[in-house]
């Protein structure tokens, strides 16, 4: 099993590969690379990052978080998607199913799967300590604004802050107000080197 077998909305493979290489080159060993992903969903993107880390043999701390609660799963289409995918899965919880996917793909040792609110998780990281953060939780303006506000100070100078759904006005507005001009890749991934 690989990330390809996991359901989800993941269209930024090239960005994850390039960003990983960039932070590894900018921050050489023995430094531990710290990567955070906000919005796990079923773990498709997390699994892909786990596969990259596994191949790299670099010392990496990679944490992905989600509320794993359909009441807060962005919108109805996402919660319906979750309910549909949980239907035939032996009574697994949403989080339990993600853990099983990551285990079956052989990346669980490389992915720290956390049930947490994306803004709250930032309190467990020191300022200037994260090399790469990818924001893909709730896409409403207030939420993206709160995520960027919480995580921008956590990113190291020379590290990368990034996120998904740049085709949405809500995301563009929050990014413009807090970061300014950014680069866009893989259609709707925005990023900025701090
Ligand atoms: C678009 S999905 C993430 C897609 C995922 N990266 C993939 O590869 O398929 C957004 C996820 O963010 C989660 N989410 C929404 N608000 C959140 C919050 N405040 N904290 C953590 N996760 C949140 C939702 O539960 C949902 O699973």
Number of domains: 1
List the secondary-structure elements in sequence, H or E: HEHEHHEHEHEHEE
Shape: globular
Biggest sheet features? 7 strands, mixed
Are any ligands bound, and if so which? S-adenosylmethionine
Counted beta strands = 7
Please report the number of helical segments: 7
Strand order of the largest sheet: 3-2-1-4-5-7-6
For the record, the CATH architecture stands as 3-Layer(aba) Sandwich
Structure described in brief:
It contains seven helices and seven strands; from the N terminus they run H-E-H-E-H-H-E-H-E-H-E-H-E-E. It is an alpha/beta fold.
What does this molecule look like?
- The protein is an alpha/beta fold and 194 residues long.
- It has a single domain (3-193), classed as Vaccinia Virus protein VP39 (Rossmann fold), CATH 3.40.50.150.
- Helices cover 38% and strands 21% of the residues.
- The chain has seven helices and seven strands.
- The chain has helices spanning 13-26, 44-56, 76-86, 94-104, 118-121, 141-151, 169-178; strands at residues 33-38, 60-66, 112-115, 130-135, 155-163, 183-185, 189-193.
- It has a seven-stranded mixed sheet with strand order 3-2-1-4-5-7-6, with helices on both faces.
- α1 (13-26) packs parallel to α2.
- The N and C termini lie far apart (35 Å).
- The structure holds S-adenosylmethionine.
- The site of S-adenosylmethionine has 21 residues, from α2 and β2.
